[in-house]
Design brief:
By secondary structure, the protein is α/β, with parallel strands linked by helices. It has 16 helices and 22 strands. Helix 5 packs across helix 7. The longest helix is centred in the middle third of the chain and has 24 residues.
Length: 524
């Protein structure tokens, strides 16, 4: 068998591949060049430069696996690969240690003012008093997001004899040894932490998870580290909190807008920063190269792979029948995770109609993927979704019934969490017209695409006009609107599809309108 490596990867991975297969390293190929030669290969390995398009995949008659030496697969047409029966694998764990170590380095540099002292000394000053630091021993470290990287940071912090607490609404204390990390709510973490480090994904629910409100309740003198995603912190609020003396300092590897060369935070002596270096180690690049090489070898030898992005076992003819429902199930999961929060205890997947004759296990995995990928930092895919869910002690129930009332096929996702019970249902009209048709007790007809403002309100005259006025004043264009209600002038729900991103300030303005009970911004 032959393997094509079309982007530069560490030689350690290439050497592993050459032990079993013929390997050609040809970088910088155009799409036309790849289309011409891809039919000669059984596996393709890329990083981020090569765009594996549908056209390339359609000409890949021998290709069994595409490997991405890294986390993201945005440069690969995964749907086209799945339709063709080609496995897509990635390497999501290779940079875990690099990111965790960078976080610790940033925390220690912040606590001892190492960058500032270095610059001062290089300018010819020997000023010990100006750079008095603090010890981390005995201090409380709050970790927001306890995925792979968050846990590795927790281990290292414990080695420094820090007290470690964490907020992660999707991990329970029973998953974590209580002597290592104590799970708390966000308010408790903010009020008690001497250091706070963020390791959460950036979603509509985590955007500005530390914002103006949160900065007001932080423990005075706290130090903040962010090596995850820039939008997790409201940078204006952070800037003001440092100026006012509430925050002693910050270490930032990521920013809301990058490159961040003109960011006003960089003008503060209390801020140290690096240009998104979390995964930039020689070892991390070697690790992803080795990880992807081993998974490609497993795939070519028909063995179980570690990090599959799509499903290997589904036949192309079955995928043609089910793939629009797979996409719908994933969107139901994405919808829930942005609509409701709280620790999930139980997930009930319901299938009605002719869809019950198809492979519903793939649909369940897709719904779990959609739900978990929004809330977890580590990637969840169709292969590992069930395992990741069970690791978090979430019960999964699947029910089927052949008879249906209103729709020829219906998928429902019911989630029971600490705070809510939530039901969302969807169907596919025709061949590929995906719709959300129920949200809890309300019937609705919502296309799950783009940006959606979901509003719970009292059904009374003027509500739609009030919301429209606010959006119009802020130059937000409404594309579609759907309303569901139980009875006239009773409880109702309004779903607006808008063309632009809606910032939290506008969402708050809508929520403060009389008669409106709750507003959520959901992005598909």
């Amino acid at each position: 068998m032959r393997i094509l490596v079309s982007d530069p990867i560490a030689s350690e991975g290439v050497d592993i591949l050459k032990e079993e297969f013929q390997v050609d390293v040809k970088t910088g190929l155009t799409e036309d060049e790849l289309v011409y030669i891809i039919e000669d290969y059984d596996a393709l390995i890329v990083r981020s430069s090569t765009k594996v398009t549908k056209r390339i995949i359609e000409n890949a008659n021998r290709l069994k696996v595409i490997g991405r030496a890294g986390v993201g697969v945005d440069n690969i047409d995964v749907e086209a690969a799945t339709f063709k029966g080609i496995l897509v694998v990635n390497a999501p764990e290779g940079n875990t240690i690099a990111a965790a170590e960078h976080t610790m380095a940033m925390m220690l540099s912040l606590s001892r003012k190492i960058p500032q002292a270095t610059m001062s000394l290089k300018r010819g000053h020997w000023d010990k008093k100006a750079f008095m630091g603090v010890e981390v021993k005995g201090k409380t470290l709050g970790i927001i997001g306890l995925g792979r990287i968050g846990r590795e940071v927790g281990k290292r912090a414990r080695a420094f004899h820090m007290n470690v607490i964490s907020y992660d609404p999707y991990i329970s204390q029973e998953n974590i040894h209580k002597d290592e990390i104590k799970m708390v709510d966000l308010d408790t973490l903010l009020r008690n932490s001497d250091f706070i480090t963020l390791h959460a994904p950036l979603t509509s629910s985590t955007n500005h998870i530390i914002g103006e409100k949160e900065f007001k309740i932080l423990k005075k003198g706290v130090r903040i580290i962010n090596c995850a995603r820039g939008g997790l912190i409201d940078e204006n609020a952070l800037y003001n909190s440092i100026i006012e003396g509430r925050v002693a300092g910050a270490s930032l590897d990521v920013f809301e807008k990058e490159p961040a060369t003109n960011n006003k935070l960089l003008k503060l002596d209390q801020v140290i920063a690096t240009p998104h270096l979390g995964a930039s180690t020689e070892e991390a690049q070697i690790n992803v190269s080795i990880d992807i090489a081993n998974d490609v070898i497993r795939a070519l030898n028909n063995k179980t792979v570690r990090n599959a992005v799509n499903m290997m076992s589904i036949k192309p003819e079955e995928w043609a029948k089910i793939h629009h429902y797979v996409l719908l199930a994933e969107k139901l999961g994405k919808f829930y995770s942005q609509f409701r929060d709280g620790r999930v205890r139980r997930i009930e997947m319901g299938y009605s109609g002719g869809i019950t004759e198809l492979n519903t296990s793939i649909l369940t995995a897709s719904a779990l993927k959609g739900l978990l990928n929004v809330i977890l930092q580590e990637p969840v895919n169709l292969v590992n979704a069930l395992v990741v869910t069970k690791e978090r002690k979430i019960e999964i129930v699947e029910t089927k019934k052949r008879d249906v009332e209103d729709y020829s096929n219906l998928i429902t996702l019911k989630v029971i969490s600490d705070n809510y019970e939530c039901l969302v249902g969807g169907t596919v009209f025709g061949k590929n017209d995906q719709r959300i048709v129920m949200i809890n007790k309300y019937k609705i007809d919502l296309i799950p695409e783009g940006n959606i403002i979901l509003i719970s309100h009292r059904d009374k005259p003027g509500m739609i006009g009030s919301v429209g006025t606010i959006l119009g004043r802020n130059d937000i264009n409404i594309a579609t609107m759907q309303v569901g209600r139980m009875s006239p002038r009773g409880e109702a729900i309004m779903a607006l599809t808008v063309d632009e991103y809606v910032n939290p300030q506008i969402i708050k303005e809508i929520a403060d309108t009389e008669g409106i009970e709750e507003v959520k911004f959901i992005v598909f």
